[in-house]
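User: Can you recover a sequence for this backbone? Please restate the input before giving your answer.

Assistant: Of course. Working from this structure:
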């Protein structure tokens, strides 16, 4: 920002006066330092700032090349040794992902972590928020391209995260409400809930007849090619009979 202002002042002053002013003496050294910079920027934390990329895909059939290319196309030049790729389901919490966990150990204060989407940082909004808060506590900046490259640890980023968390919580509550309404409607219509029975109604009647005749649960289960637990559930549902379980 300061560089843009200096350049604007220089051009404006040169066009008005027709000669080079003292602004050039200030602007050009700044430009020179930026263009000739060959080492990472040193920060107040006493070490060089580094930039990392974390790219994740869900299956081994996919690859992370597109994510890395997207980040590099956005203007981020990252050392290949600082590109961390991982193939793991998005349902796994961030800290439980092996490669991401190793990355957390490598990150130091003033480092920058770049991802393409928020789901790279966690399995849900709460997990993403916890990950970002952990990184912010370690003075690591986090940039997400899907959100315009905003630093999620900045004031604007925190506000964005708060809004996303609120939306995620609203969607979760709405899903729970719809699920409960669907269950209540199904029960009112007399629909059976849960896993279908292993035996048909005819088979259940036959199983109960054989149990009442004194056959064991294990023998009935073997004859119907099912488990003892299934036969015991049938017995419980239709009423106890005098049988043995073995």
């Amino acid at each position: 920002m300061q560089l843009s202002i200096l350049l604007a002042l220089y051009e404006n002053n040169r066009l008005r006066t027709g000669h080079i002013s003292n602004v050039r003496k200030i602007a050009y050294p700044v430009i020179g330092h930026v263009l000739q910079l060959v080492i990472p920027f040193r920060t107040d934390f006493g070490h060089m700032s580094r930039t990392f990329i974390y790219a994740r895909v869900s299956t081994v059939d996919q690859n992370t090349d597109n994510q890395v290319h997207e980040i590099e196309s956005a203007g981020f030049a990252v050392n290949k040794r600082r590109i961390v790729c991982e193939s793991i389901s998005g349902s796994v919490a961030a800290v439980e992902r092996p490669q991401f966990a190793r990355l957390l150990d490598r990150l130091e204060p003033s480092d920058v972590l770049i991802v393409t989407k928020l789901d790279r940082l966690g399995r849900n909004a709460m997990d993403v928020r916890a990950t970002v808060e952990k990184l912010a506590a370690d003075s690591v900046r986090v940039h997400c391209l899907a959100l315009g490259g905003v630093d999620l640890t900045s004031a604007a980023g925190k506000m964005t995260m708060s809004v996303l968390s609120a939306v995620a919580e609203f969607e979760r509550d709405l899903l729970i409400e719809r699920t409960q309404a669907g269950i209540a409607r199904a029960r009112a219509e007399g629909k059976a809930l849960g896993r279908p029975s292993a035996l048909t109604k005819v088979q259940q009647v036959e199983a109960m007849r054989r149990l009442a005749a004194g056959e064991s649960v294990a023998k009935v289960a073997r004859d119907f090619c099912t488990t003892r637990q299934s036969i015991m559930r049938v017995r419980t549902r239709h009423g106890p009979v005098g049988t043995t379980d073995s």
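That completes the design. Residues 1-46 have pLDDT under 50 and may be disordered.
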